Amino acid sequence: VSPTLRVLQALAKDCEHPDLGPLMRGKLGGSELVAAEAVCGLRSIAVPSNTLPPADTTNAFIIGDVDGERLVVDPSPRDPATLEQLCCALAGLGVGAVFLTHHHADHRQFANELARRFELPIWLSADTQKRISDKTAGRYFAGITTRIVGTGDILCRSLDSPVRAYAVPGHDAGQLALAPDSMAWMIVGDLIQGVGTVVIAKPEGDMAAYFASMQKVIDLNPRVIAPSHGIPMGSCFRIQATLAHRKLREDEILRLHREGLSATEMLPVIYDGIDERLIPLARMNVESHLDKLRAEGRLSR
């Protein structure tokens, strides 16, 4: 976290008389948002957001070398007070652009206000821009410059390694992941979560695309997976385990369908003991599995 990092940096400059200076940034009324750097070159702030339970924060990642372009990814504070905290935490970090992984509100709420405050452009996929514009009647981007990003585009450099965008649709059609060519880490948005589970919901969700995106990340084999909710995870183990679990879940749904159960009747069998608040989301996942099975011709009806 920031205090530890600054102490080490000060000692590296002068071990005998380190100038520690202020160890914290972002104070507001006795509370603060603290940046952590679990992986060198990948700094994140767990920002309280209006996301789905059990998660209650969305990671705002800060990437890019000091002497080049630097991005803040998915800043989405839950309210104006948290926005002020985040702005304080970002002040002086040299951020030059906002990047949105996808269009869901818990990844871009107040990001436009932050962009206006710091006079930053917003970078995102064409699909994400269209969905946000459609949902807000174009008001979201008023007065903000946007840049459309596609697969393979270089956005910045991390430890002098080019950071590229990768299309990872499934949870959202326009979702993009970011990773340096070194594959030291990959920011995967909501492809996987460290807290809770990923919902694949229509119209933007597609279970077949979701399976393919997880396999794409597994094949790229980044050393650290950085989800939008929860802490970074070493290796692709969690994505491999999640893909295997989803395949088993799909086999179970296919079996229950063949036994004549509806999607609603499957829920207590598949999700025994689930939080009642999450039942509508669980049904969306079941429906998405059924849509995939139907498109593949594996359903009898």
Description:
The chain is of the alpha/beta class. 34% of the residues lie in helices and 19% in strands. It contains 8 helices and 13 strands. The strands form 3 sheets. The chain has a 7-stranded mixed beta sheet. Helix 5 runs antiparallel to helix 6 and helix 7 packs across helix 8. The longest helix is centred in the C-terminal third of the chain and has 22 residues. The protein starts with a helix and ends in a 6-residue tail after the last helix. About 2% of the residues have low confidence.
Q: What's the short version?
A:
This protein is of the alpha/beta class. Helix content is 34%, strand content 19%. It has a seven-stranded mixed β-sheet. A three-stranded antiparallel β-sheet has the order 8-9-10, with no helix packed on it. Strands 11-12-13 form a three-stranded mixed β-sheet, with no helix packed on it.
> What is the radius of gyration?
20 Å
Gross morphology is: globular
Subunit organisation of the chains: single chain
Number of strands: 13
* Terminus-to-terminus distance: 54 Å
What is the chain-wise order of helices and strands? HEEEEHEHEHEEEEEHEEHHH
Strand content: 15-25%
The level of helicity is 25-40%
Q: What is the spatial order of strands in the main beta sheet?
A: 1-2-3-4-5-6-7
* Count of separate DSSP helical elements: 8
SS content category: alpha/beta
Overall pLDDT, averaged? 92
Largest sheet: 7 strands, mixed
